[in-house]
Amino acid sequence: MSVRELSDVPSFPAIYAAALTPRPGVRRSATLPSEAYRVRRVRIDPERAAAFDHLMGGPATDLVHPGVLHVLAFPVTLALMARPTFPAPLLGLVHLRNSLLQHRPVRVGELVDVEASVRNLRPHRKGRTFEAVTTIRVDGEIIATDVSTYLARGGGAAEAERAGAESAAAGASRTAEAPRREFVPPVPTGRWTLGADTGRRYAEVSGDANPIHLSALSARAFGFPRAIAHGMHTASRAFTEARVDLRRPLRWDVEFDAPVTLPGTVLVGFEPEGASDGGAGAVTRCVGWRPGRDQKGPRRCFAVSVTTLG
Amino acid sequence: MTDTAPAAPHRDGAASDSPVRDAFVLGGNRIPFARSGGAYAGVSAQDLLTAALDGLVARFGLQDERLGVVAGGAVLKRAADLNLTRESALGTPLSPRTPAIDLSKACATGLETVVHASNAIRLGQIDSAIACGVDSASDAPIEVSDRLRRILHRVSAAKTPAQRLRALAAIRPADLAPQPPRNAEARTGLSMGEHQALTAARWGITRQAQEELALASHRSLAAAYDSGLLDDLVSGYRGLARDENLRPDSTPEKLASLKPVFGVRSPEVAEPTMTAATSTPLSDGASAVLLGSREWAQERGLAPLARLVDARSAAVDFVHGEEGLLMAPAYAVPELLDANGLTLADLDLVEIHEAFAATVLATLAAWESEEFGRERLGRDGAFGTVDRSRLNIAGSSLAAGHPFAATGGRIVATLAKLLHARAVETGRTQRGLVSICAAGGQGTVALLESDGKA
Where do the Thiolase C-terminal domain residues begin and end (chain B) (predicted)? Predict the structure, then answer.
């Protein structure tokens, strides 16, 4: 894989502006770019890390919240995904899953190298999915890897036909599982009351000014009836409330389901820390859901698990 | 206390060598508790605490006395009230050379001030103390938002008018909204009532059982006033002679007609069983307890009502749902009784603060549960049963109201007097327990004992 060196972390507004600019005559590719983008010596700004901690309801710590690593690397990934030839348009991508593995604690003020690439374009019953992978390195040593799985809606069936028989079979079996299982919420341990400004406050600390999160008006422009909370915001808050020992290597897994509309209320249920499935560490789990109302049942919005390793 | 040798560590713990002496509750004084926005609207927490202290000073002739300490606190406290207890004490005829300390532990604040002061007496550091607490929900502090505060600090740190203007320009209309104290646990966003609703559901506490407990509380407190028990424990203030929340004429029918208030906003949280009648109202009030060594009491001709035997505190993990928010005392009490070689059956009186009727009932249910005893307390079986005829016999917070930090002092003074009267009457030592739950998943409990001797 070739690596293109960027002189600095791209700015979010520039990327979104570029993504919105029509490019007549440019055809989207059928395959993911094989090129990786890299930015060297990015400083983890202590003030921004503190603002992030505070928004998540936690104390400003000298060891950074892994959500800060995600937002640090995200613009680099975004720049890759905003290329005019990228197989899917940037606005409209749905974040399905996120998995961050952190090998050692990261301190505020550290200089890290960020590298972003994309891989595994696969058919999905609602379109296609792919993974954006970012690695955070210090002196060539990988200290964290962040894998975000995105869904590009539409074009899936056609793509699936074109894909090999094996992939098509995989896609079909997934469709067979499709009827949504009824979500039975656990006993709640908390309630998050998210105001209309939730998306703007996350944009302030993360820099991620995606219009679908900012206001009802900007969200409507992209086909959402209301603004929706940024998935990594709810996931980061759940991480903070999991009260993880940041000195230990850890794994932070998130699955996103129904969007959290703003303003809105999410009930969350934590499970007390238990042994992880592999038995190697301790895991804390949390699910968040929209309470049911009238005839509508509760909808699961996210499931977060944090595993401390060793 | 004997101290012939320099302070050598005591290894054998023999009673005669013990560096610890007894600390006694000598009396108390409180003002009637008012409902928020009621009789004490318009007066401050300092006014209320001064009134309670003033009454105690008058009752025990403490004018110009230099006491060991006045330990006090408030839960809803203005930043400007950093020395609330000292300032209140200075407003009384106590010697201005009496030191003071402010303590804070949510609803356990009042009991913690008693524990703090009596520990200092027991160690011989001081001979006398007042433990006190106050809260005014009517005059709760209102703050500016976090954003506005940070912006204003930036403005004041700015060196040039241009910098100042730039900092001020960051203010948005939403930043200007005043911030009253949150009625929710910081980490869960659930109100205390909703947390209790979850615990009530977990233990299957019925609405009817809660209402029976609330009715008993009102009847017992009314009877305590009528019998004169509270005559030397309460002094009227601003036209109020009895607790404003007390409803001696309440009926089961009236209580049954009330709408549930907790678990309603999200029916999924829990089956709503808790009403305004089975939850303590926001209240205003203050209380004070006089403590001293036996010698100090004797010199002044004061009867030591009850000895403060021991105390414990506990905390639970409610954030991740391992235990209910207000269940810490269910753990602290077994620890306290075990340490003193006692069981629930050895207690003559039990005071469990009625944050909610369901709090008391869930605590009792946990102690009666074999599973809780084995799995949570690590015992062979259930911890035990509280004889309901010994529980909150002079009423508790559901009837009196609950000005957070004032509740501990109300309970300790009342219990000490009850224990003393019963010890005199029966000629037997009487033991009493105080159990108080607090926000943040905490609890403080204490053991009092009276031999009835003057």
Answer: 303-449
**Looking at domain A182-310, which CATH architecture does it have?**
Roll (3.10)
Domain ranges of chain B: 146-176
The string of pLDDT tens digits covering residues A221-252 is 888 889 999 999 999 999 999 999 999 999 99
pLDDT score recorded for residue B336: 98
Select from B37, B79, B109 the least CA-distant residue to B289: B109
What per-residue confidence (pLDDT) applies to A167?
Answer: 41
Identical fold between A1-179 and A182-310:
yes
How far off is chain A from B175, nearest CA to CA, in Å?
A: 12
Residue B197 main-chain phi, psi, to 5 deg: -60, -40
Q: How many whole angstroms separate alpha carbon A276 and alpha carbon A10?
A: 38
Best-predicted range by mean pLDDT (A8-17, A178-187, B388-397): B388-397
Query: Angle CA(B162)–CA(B164)–CA(B166) in degrees, nearest 5?
Result: 70
Higher per-residue confidence, B171 vs B32: B32
User: Distance between CA B273 and CA A150 in Å, rounded?
Assistant: 44
**Which burial class, exposed, middle or buried, applies to B249 when counting CB atoms under 10 A from its CB (0-12, 13-18, 19+)?**
exposed
Pairing between β-strand A3-6 and β-strand A36-43 as defined by DSSP bridges: parallel
B132 catalytic residue (yes or no): no
What is the model's pTM? 0.88
Amino acid (1-letter code) at residue A131: E
d(C-alpha A24, C-alpha A20), whole Å: 12
User: Does domain A1-179 fall into CATH 3.90.650.10?
Assistant: no
Our CA-based measurement puts residue A186 at a distance from the nearest CA of chain B, in whole angstroms, of 10
> Which of chain B's residues have a Cβ under 8 Å away from the Cβ of A57?
186-187
Which residues lie below 8 Å from residue A10, measured CB to CB, with a gap of 6+?
Answer: A75, A76, A78, A79
Answer yes or no: are the C-beta atoms of B200 and B274 closer than 8 Å. yes
Nearest to A272 among B189, B194, B322 (CB): B322
**Whether ipTM exceeds 0.90:** no
The backbone torsions φ and ψ at residue A303, rounded to the nearest 5 degrees and listed phi first, read -135, 125
Cα distance between residue B253 and residue B250, in whole Å? 8
List chain B residues with CB under 8 Å of A189: 188, 190, 318-321
Cα A71 to Cα A77: distance, rounded to the nearest angstrom:
10
The pLDDT tens digits of the residues spanning B119-148 come to 999 999 999 999 999 999 998 888 888 888
Domain boundaries, chain A: 1-179, 182-310
Q: Where are the alpha helices (DSSP H) in chain A?
A: 12-20, 46-55, 66-81, 156-162, 165-176, 198-206, 211-214, 216-220, 231-241
Give the span between the Cα atoms of B286 and B271, in whole angstroms.
35
Alpha-carbon gap, residue A176 to A197, rounded angstroms: 39
Question: Is B437 in the active site?
Answer: yes
Q: Are B29 and B52 a contacting pair, CB within 8 Å?
A: yes
